Amino acid sequence: MAKVLVTGGAGYIGAHACKALAQAGYTPVAFDNLSTGHRAAVKFGPLVEGDLLNRAAIDAVLAEHAPIAVMHFAALSQVGESMQEPGRYWRENVLGGLNLIEATQAAGIDKFIFSSTCATYGDQDGVVLNEETEQHPINAYGGSKLAIEQMLRDFSPKGLTYVIFRYFNVAGADPDAEVGEAHDPETHLVPLILQAVAGARGALTIFGTDYDTADGTCIRDYVHVSDLVDAHVAGLKWLEEGKSSEVFCLGTGDGFSVREVVAAAAAVTNGPVPIEEGPRRAGDAVKLVCGSDKARTQLGWTPSRSTMPQMLRDAHRWHASDGF
Ligand code: UFG
């Protein structure tokens, strides 16, 4: 079976990608330094422990496994932290990405799938973001991801083909609960709500209730992680068919306020979500919704699990399991 190198394969999205690749007939080779990933999340192919700052380690895994393509998920990914420690983000994300892209090309591999983010757009409240929207990141995380997008464009004339996916609020878990979301510390809304429901932490703090929205809370576009990784497999096939390098936004186009997510979680879990209202969180945009017409029409992507109740049900099932 053809192998695919999955950097960050022990992380939340990477582990789901490994499952989707295995189901599609590929062998995923997870490459992860386990700084935030989980050894137990690697279930669908081998794990090679290694760091993207170590070029020799990348060369070695590419030589040993000879993958046909690289899927690059590994990155530091917290907006707030990236403003506290910008150097770490520029060093690990950008230098790590450069090492990987150079090693990929040196190994004669010409297919690269990159996990990018709507954080590359910066604060463009009220606009539905799409592939044409100008990118003006306002934090080091978004800046570091945009730098890798640019790198891929620069390497493209030298024979590297790529698909860049820009996505936003990824939620949910594998419907079979084989893998799921487990960050430490957890900062994302859906797992924090489920922890609050389970009594594993105190009340959920709603960050800001005085925004200019119908219920005063921020609006985001949530995509089911299984739908998201399906798009990555479709992106791989796109490149295997010899199609051109492309950027695709992955979202549903529907926005949910924080209060709407809380209400949906209460319905799915049959229990009240303990909440308290707090001040706004620095760096939060009011409304961020990501269009996906291009992915639907060109890639044939259908986000079939990305309804709010389904994402919450699948995340809840995972959180109720033993986890990793
Ligand atoms: N929120 C709360 N309380 C919490 C946590 C979050 O009210 O305890 C709110 C946030 O203010 C925001 C919404 O829930 O309005 C979603 O917050 P998340 O932290 O779950 O997600 P973000 O929208 O901040 O972050 C997402 C991705 C990042 C990505 C970023 C781009 O998770 O990886 O968008 O800005 F980089």
Describe, in plain words, how this protein is organized in 3D.
- The protein is α/β, with parallel strands linked by helices and 324 residues long.
- The protein is 38% helix and 19% strand.
- The chain has ten helices and 15 strands.
- The strands form four sheets. A seven-stranded parallel beta sheet has the order 3-2-1-4-5-7-12, with helices on both faces.
- The longest helix is centred in the N-terminal third of the chain and has 21 residues, at 86-106.
- The structure holds uridine-5'-diphosphate-4-deoxy-4-fluoro-alpha-D-galactose (UFG).
Summary?
With 324 residues, the chain is α/β, with parallel strands linked by helices. The protein is built from ten helices and 15 strands.
Secondary structure elements and pairings:
Blueprint: E1 3-7, H1 12-23, E2 27-32, E3 47-49, H2 55-65, E4 69-72, H3 79-84, H4 86-106, E5 111-117, E6 128-129, H5 140-155, E7 161-167, E8 169-171, H6 189-197, E9 204-207, E10 219-220, E11 222-224, H7 225-240, E12 246-250, E13 256-257, H8 258-269, E14 275-278, E15 287-290, H9 293-298, H10 308-320
Parallel strand pairs: 1-2, 1-4, 2-3, 4-5, 5-7, 6-15, 7-12, 8-11, 9-14, 10-15
Antiparallel strand pairs: 10-13
Helix pairs in contact: 1-7, 2-4, 4-5, 6-8, 6-10, 8-10
The protein binds uridine-5'-diphosphate-4-deoxy-4-fluoro-alpha-D-galactose.
Family: Belongs to the NAD(P)-dependent epimerase/dehydratase family.
Keywords: Carbohydrate metabolism, Isomerase, NAD, Plasmid
Pathway: Carbohydrate metabolism; galactose metabolism
